[in-house]
Amino acid sequence: MNALDYAVLLLTILGIAAYGTWRTRGRHTFSTYLKGAGDTRWFVIGLSVMATQASAVTFLSTPGQGFQGGLGFVQFYFGMPIALIIIAAVFLPIYRRLNVITAYEYLGQRFDGKTRLLGAAVFLVQRALGAGLTIYAPAIVLSKVMGWSLSATILCSGIVVVVYTATGGSDAVNVTQKYQISVIFAAMIAAFVILLKNLPAGLTFSDTLSIAGGMHKLEAVNFSTDPGKRYTFWSGTIAATFHMLAYFGTDQSQVQRYISGASLRESRLGLMFNAVFKIPMQFFILSLGVLLFVVYQFEKPPVYFDQVAWQERAARDEGGPLREIETKFSAAHDDEQQQLQTWMKARHAGDRTAESAARSTAALAHDRVEAIRKEARLAVDPRDKRNDTDYVFITFIMDHFPHGMIGLLVAAFFAAALSAKSAELNSLGSATTVDIYRHIIKPTASDAHYLTASRGFTIFWGIVSIAFALCLSFADNLIQAVNIIGALFYPVMLSLFVVGFFLKKIGGTAVFWGGLTAQTLVLVLFFTVPDNRLSFLWYNVIGCVVCILVSAIIQLASGTPSRAAVT
Amino acid sequence: MTPEPEPKDEVTGLPGLRSWRSVYLFVLVVFGLWIGLLIVLTRMFS
Question: What is the pLDDT of residue A234?
Answer without folding.
Answer: 93
